[in-house]
Structure formats: structure tokens, C-alpha cells
Amino acid sequence: MNRRRLMGTVAAAAGTALIPGRATAAGDGLAARVRPYLDRALAAGAPSAVFGVIRDGRRHVAGAAKDGPAPDGRTVFQLGSIGKTFTATALARAVGAGRVRLDTPLTLPPGFTVPRGKTRHITLRDLATHSSGLPRLPANLLDDADPYNPYAHYTLKDLAAGLPRTALVHEPGSAYAYSNLGFGLLGQALAFDGVDLMLRRRVTAPLRLPDTTTTLRPDMASRKAVGHMEGEAVPDWRDRVLSGAGTSMYSTADDMLRYLSAQLRPERSPLREAIELTQRHHFTDPGTGLRLGLGWHFGTLSDGRTVTWHNGGTYGFSTCAVFHRKSGTAALMMVNTFSGDGATSFDALAFDLLAELAGS
């Protein structure tokens, strides 16, 4: 892939705006239901795939690969923008503790110019619902960027230089515009220059998600799938400034099913109030009718049922998590490839699997 085309896909990656214990094999036919979706993922170009499901309190994880050992529940993938829901949960915890309000204006340390609209300031709620008006990426992100690792070079100094060049695409609170920059700034607003530690302390550690992290430990590296783009192996993304957007987060299917279990049954979670707050309706785009919680998107299955979801992507990985709380059903998809031209969407597999499980 040439540099121009590759850099042009940065805006699409790390998420696309669309409408306790290890998981074990379940004995109620879940394995047979999941297998066709693994086959479809491989047929669509994934070198390997892992799917995880929750149904009637049971969890099941299965993997498949074109060559070599199949991944499993402990195989590490880059998570991408599903990580935004962790940042939103950290925001909800801060709200519950009285440290901030959802209508608190975005503030950053001196030297970091916060863009504002003509009518009002950007609030933390705006950031968490993609209604801030901020563009998808910082104005200067791609200046001198590594085309295969576009966030790695970006520093707080670069962020300070780029913010004055940033023009809002609409007035805060008036419309939906998906923004990695917005969630990156939300992370910085919650824990300036300490976002990764904050996410671990406030979200992943209380939920017992040991492999959900922005730092790839040696033991995780030995279990990590190799990311691919258009059939070529590519490096993992690195990001220490906008990591609140999920750009450099890792996870496993086992961790993500624990996380989805907490979403389905928050009353059993130590983060009950925060999870409930993220799943409430907080914004509706007036143009499309798209509805959002904090971080989470709300969608509709073909039978009219409302589901809660988020997807993610880096250059080497694609992920999607979707759940239907009323039926206690969730589906997770993780593959180690990214389709830069958008021609292949693996997200539909997760939605189709959920629809099948929730409808039976």
C-alpha cells in the first residue's frame, strides 16, 4: 500500500461511526453457532479470528486460523476504539465521585488552547458523545508521521501546537461527529499525562481485566496475534498522548467477555453506578437519529430490538462488541486484520451472531 493511501485510512481506523474467570466451552450449542462466523471471518480475509459470546449466563470463546495454531481466549489483540468505552467509564466514575460533572467545560493545563464554539464551551459530555464539534484527528497528527504507526511520534508538545490550529466542524452539542481527538482530550482532562495509569486504576483493575492495557507486557507479547493489513504484517500502534481514544489498547477475548458480563449485569459489578451511567441515553444526533450513551452507541437489529455496541480498528486489527441487555446476550469479534478501504466489514458478523443468539 502506498504512503498516501495508507495515511488516508488513519481517520477510518481506531473506530468507525456506524449505525469472572476464563470463558469455557458451553454445552448448549454455542460452539456450533459460533463456528460459521469464524469461517465467514476467515473467508473475508482474516488470518485468524476469535469470537466470544454470552448467553443465559454462559460464556464461550472459540478461535480459528488459516495457518498455524488457532487463537483462543488468552490471545492478545489490539482493541482499538472499544477502548473509548473504558475512558467513558472512567468519566462516569469521576462524576459519581463528585470530581466533575458531565456539563463541566473541557479544561487543560496552561499552554493547551481548548477550541470553543461561538455559543458555548465544549463539555465533558460533548466529548463522551462525539458531539464536541472537534475533528476526527488533530490538525498536525500526520505531520512527519510513520505511515504504519501514525500516533507513535505524537507528543504533548505536538498537541499543544496543534490545538490552536483546530477548527470545530460544528457547534458543541449540536451534531454527531466521531472524534478520536475528542476522546483523547477527554482522557487528558481526566488525568493529564497519566491516562494509562488512570484507566488501569479506575476501570480495568476493579473489573479484573489483567490483559486490557496500553502497555504490552512480555508475557502478553508471547500471546499476541500479529496484525495484518492487506495481507502484510504491520506493527502495533503506539500512542501515549491520545490513548484515551483506545488507539493503543490491547485486550483478550477472556477479558472482553468479563467486561461485557459487567455491562449485562452491572448490579454484580464494583462499578455498577458508572456502568449504568455510560449506558443511559445522553445524546441524539438531530440529522441521523443516532443515539449515544457515554462512549457506547445504540443501534437497532432487523427485528427492532435496541442493542449497545462499539467497534474498533488499528492498521492490524478489527474488533466489535455488541450486547442486548434485556436478553442477557453479547457477542464479541476480534480479527488480526484491518480493511483500509472499508470494502470488508467484520462488524456485521458480530451483529449477525448477536441477532441469532438473542432471537432464539
Quaternary form: single chain
Low-confidence stretches: 16-27
Q: Please report which band the strand proportion falls in: under 5%, 5-15%, 15-25%, 25-35%, 35-45% or over 45%.
A: 15-25%
What Rg do the Cα atoms give? 19 Å
Overall morphology = globular
What is the residue-averaged pLDDT?
Answer: 92
The run of helices and strands is HHEEEHHHHHHEEEHHEEEEEEH
Give me the secondary-structure category: alpha+beta
Major pleated sheet: 8 strands, antiparallel
Biggest sheet, strands in spatial order?
Answer: 2-1-12-11-10-9-8-7
Gap between N and C termini, in Å?
43 Å
Task: State the helix count.
Answer: 11
Q: How many beta-strand runs?
A: 12
Helix content: 25-40%
What attributes characterize this protein structure?
11 helices; alpha+beta; globular; 360 residues; eight-stranded antiparallel beta sheet
How would you characterize the overall build of this protein?
With 360 residues, the protein is an alpha+beta fold. It is 29% helix and 16% strand. The protein is built from eleven helices and twelve strands.
